[in-house]
Amino acid sequence: MFRIGEFSIIAQVSGRLLRYYDEIGLLSPDHTDPQTGYRFYSAGQLPRLNRILVLKELGLSLDQIARLLDYDTSVEELRGMLALRKAQIAQSMQEDLTRLQMVEARLDQIATHGQMQEPDVILKAITAQRYLALREVLPDIDAVRRLVSRVASVLPTMVSAGSLGQLAIVIHSPMFDPEAFDLEVGYLLTGKAPATVRLSEERVLTQQALPAVATMATVVHAGRVNDTHQSYSLLGIWAEQHQWQIGGAGRQMLMQLPQPGQDDAVIEVQLPVHRADENGGS
Q1: What is the mean pLDDT of residues 140-169?
Q2: How many CA atoms within 13 Å lie on the side-chain side of 169?
Q3: Taking the CB of residue 3, how many other CB atoms lie within 10 A of it?
Q4: How many helices (H) and strands (E) does the chain have?
Q5: What pTM did the predictor assign?
């Protein structure tokens, strides 16, 4: 048996924490001397204490920990909870890194504004095209990435390679909303293809006509997907300087997708434009 100070040393937790766990009933001493009030712990209580500490570090509340202790959670279940927590932390770290990269890119834009060379913007007349795609409103950029990756991996296995053109995204959102991306994702068609292709039980791609655009301002973005805002800014600055008005659904032609674990891609960003004095002087 160990007095509380001795037990705190072998368990490597503070005596204050042991007293608190005793007060709330999570870990009571194995024996309390009725005359002196001294608390005594046994080495056999270490597994329960370690379970408490593990569950605490996994982010559970003390009430949740108490219930799980009564359930006598197994080591295998704890390892499963640990794996889930590790995945959550990794996801959080990736999101933080993405935000920091975005801040860095925005700072670069501030620093270089007015110093950039004329962007290599090309004006194109886009003819009507056949398009095998599905339209969804997606809650975040990760959902967009997952859908694009799914379409890119599944469709070429179900449609002849000679019938598929570029992987294309049509952006229907009237304004940028990072919590509601209204997009169509699919392939332009260059040959015969089925009228519909089932991507999953809920998702079905349908063949349709992608309308012609008289004048499309385009620029090629080569770099991180998270930095495409830079290319959009370049197009906006160029359009204003050359007296073009932006209007209509923009598109992205995915010329080269990111490799697994990477964020670099080659994307042709397309925005429909018209002269500012057209369409009623808008």
Answers
A1: 92
A2: 22
A3: 14
A4: 7, 13
A5: 0.63
